[in-house]
Amino acid sequence: MRSTTRILCGLATVAALAVAPTAYAAENPYERGPAPTESSIEASRGSFAVSETSVSRVSVTGFGGGTIYYPTSTAQGTFGAVAISPGYTATQSSIAWIGPRLASQGFVVFTIDTTTIYDQPGSRGDQLLAALDYLTQRSTVRSRIDTSRLAVAGHSMGGGGSLEAAQDRPSLQAAVPLAPWNTQKSWSSLRVPTFVIGGEADAVAPVASHAIPFYTSIPASSEKAYMELGNASHFFPNTANTTMAKYTISWLKRFVDNDTRYEQFLCPAPDDRAISDYRDTCPHA
C-alpha cells in the first residue's frame, strides 16, 4: 500500500533543486556534505571521517553513559546531534552500527546505555533528553554541536522512549522510533517531525498495535512518515540495515539540517523492494 497524500511534492523538490548553489547555501546554513545521491545514502559510510569517545556511566547522571560518534573535522562548522536508546534488556552494543554510519553523514551521534536494562519507555525518554543535555553542555564534543538542531531515536522501548522525549521536548527537530513499543497509543500532542519505522513480521511490537497506531495518532498537521520493512522482525535495527539507514539519514538531514536536497528520497514515497508499506504527510517543503 502506498499513501496518496503527496500533492505538490515533486514541484517543491524541483524548485528547491533549481536554486543557484550560492543562494541555496545562504538559505540553508546548516547544509553539510556534498549533494546526496541514492548511492551516497546507501553507503556504509558517508563523506565525513569519524572519531568516537566513550562516556562512562559513573561520569553522568540521568542515563547510563554511552559512545559518542562525531565528524572528525570541524571545517564545515557545527553539526546537528541525535541521541539513540536501545531496547528492553539491551545495551548500546545492539545499536552500535548506527553510530558511525550516521556520524559519517554529518551528525554527532550518542548511542546510550540506560540506567538499567529494564527501564520502561517513559524512563528511556527522560534518559534520551538527559543524554542530549550532557552532549550539549558537558561533553568533550559540545563545541561541535548546534544546540538548536537536536533529535532522538531508539529501538523497541527505546523507540517508545523517543516518542516520549519528542512529546516532552517539542523543540527537538526530529524523532525516529524504530520498531517502537509503548503502552501509550495516542500521540496527538506530538509536533516534532517523526519518522516511524516498523517491521512487517514484528511479533514483539506488532505494527498493527504499535507502530501504525502511533503514526496514525500523530496529527496530520505535523510532519510524519511511516515506513514498514517487508518480512522484518522486531530486531531489524540490531544489524546493519541499508533501507532503514538511508531513509533515517534522509529524515534527519531534512528536518535536523533543514536540507531540502534530501527531500527527493522521501517524497514522493520511496518504492524500494524492501518496503511493504509507506505513509506520509508529504509535501514537506
UniProtKB/TrEMBL annotation:
InterPro entries: AB_hydrolase_fold (IPR029058), FrsA_esterase (IPR050261), PET_hydrolase/cutinase-like (IPR041127). This is Alpha/beta hydrolase family protein. Keywords: Hydrolase, Signal. Residues 25-283 form the PET hydrolase/cutinase-like domain. Belongs to the AB hydrolase superfamily. The keyword Acyltransferase does not apply. Residues 1-25 form the signal peptide. It comes from Amycolatopsis speibonae. One of its GO terms (molecular function) is hydrolase activity. The lineage of its organism: Bacteria, Bacillati, Actinomycetota, Actinomycetes, Pseudonocardiales.
